[in-house]
Predict the 3D structure of the following.
Amino acid sequence: MRHPWSEWIPGALNDYQIEQLYNEEAIVGRGAFDRKYVDKSSVDLWLSDEGYHMTQKYSVKPSGRDSYTRLIQREGSAERLPKQADGTYILKSRNTYVFKLQEKLGRKLLEAKIHGQATAKSSVGRIDVLARLVVDGMDQYEGFDPERVNESNFFGEMCIEITPMTFDVRVKEGISLSQLRFFYGHPDKAEIGSKEIYKTVLGQQAAGRSLGVDLTPVTIRDLEAVAFCARKENEPAPWGETTS
C-alpha cells in the first residue's frame, strides 16, 4: 500500500500534510479532523478531563520507559484533580499539574518517520504559565522521536505539564495550551546549510544564517530616527520622503 509520505521531502509539514496524517490515523484526534484547528504548520492539542495535581509541587521528569500518568501515580506524587461545578479546574500558582491530551500518536508515525516538536501557545506565555508536552516513550519534554517512542510499551499517549507562575488560573476540557509541529525526517537534518540559499532567501542583508537590519539613523522631518514600517515593494515612504 502506498502512503502519501512516500513522496514528501524532508522538513516541516504543512496543513495539508497534517490532514493526511489524520486520515491515515497516524494521529488520532478528538474526533473528525477539523482544518480550523490547524494553521499552516502546526496543530492545536486539547485538554481531556483527566487532570492530576503534583502533590509535591514539583514536576517528575518523564522516564521514557513507562506511561507518564502511571508513573506519577505509582510514585505517589500526583492525585486526581477534582472538577468544579462549572466544569473548570482551578490551578494554583506555583503548583504543577498534568493533564492527558485528547490526541495520541498512531503506529503509522513510525513507518512515516515523523518527528514532532511542541511549543506553548503565545497566549499561555502572556499570563506567565509554563506548559510542556510529555509523550509516552520519551525521556525529554516538548517533542518525540519515532524510533525512541517505539521502544516503549506505552505508545502514543500525550500529556501536558502545566505550572502557573504568578496567578491562579482556570482551565477546562477542550481548551488548547500547546501546539505541535510535525517533521518528515529529523528536524536537524532538514535544514539547508548553503550560504547561497541564505543569501537568496534573506537578501543582501543576510549575514550567515541571520537577517540583519541597518540601524543607522536617518533624517525624517528634521528628526533623526531608526524606525521601520513594512510596505509593498516600490511603495513610497508614508511620510513622502525617500530614505536609505
